[in-house]
Description:
This protein is α/β, with parallel strands linked by helices.
Amino acid sequence: MANAKKIALITGANKGLGFEMARQLGQAGVSVLLAARDPQKGEAAAEKLRGEGLNAQFLKLDVTDPADHAAASAFLEQQFGRLDILINNAGISAKGPDSGKVSTTTGEVMHRTFETNFFAPVALTQALLPLLMKSAAGRIVNMASILGSQTLHADPKSPIYNFKSLSYDASKAALNSFTIHLAHELKDTKIKVNSAHPGWVKTDMGTDAAPMEIPEGAKTGVALALLGEDGPTGGFFHLGKTLPW
């Protein structure tokens, strides 16, 4: 397989979209590292993929812990000498009393949401960037959300206009800004950086009310992870279509 020697790290990969993206990348021939906080759950997830004949292993990684970032970097350096794909998937939607409104969103909810959804992926990417630079074709995928689109939130005619939650939406808008800035910094390298909107998916966060199944929701991130040399960088996509910032 063309992807047989590629190494991918996916955060928050013990369940939901992260797990399914790991599965689909593994099916494409990529060796996948399932990063998660809980060793028991993470190892069980990796074992399940190995049972399907895929090359998968668990990597203990709390995305908010700098010590884990350093340990992951050291492990990758020792085992592979590089990293080809990084998918920043781990994210939360912190809840508080009436936390969707600006007037009632607490500082604690804002800080907790940004810690996981923005500061953590920026710091982890910085820690792993030297290894991505060693790849023949590095790919960074930031799992954002259409709810991070400032353009659509400001448009009364858009489908998300009445779905506002300050902490989550702002954290995903910040993640999109990170995508734009990093893609610009790396524009003269072989690394491509993009944001993915998976869709409204039946995950723990999306709930059973969501219209999309998890395998469909994983497709956007996987496609961006496997972009060819002529693929885009610095964009925001959902199932091959460009979304407005």
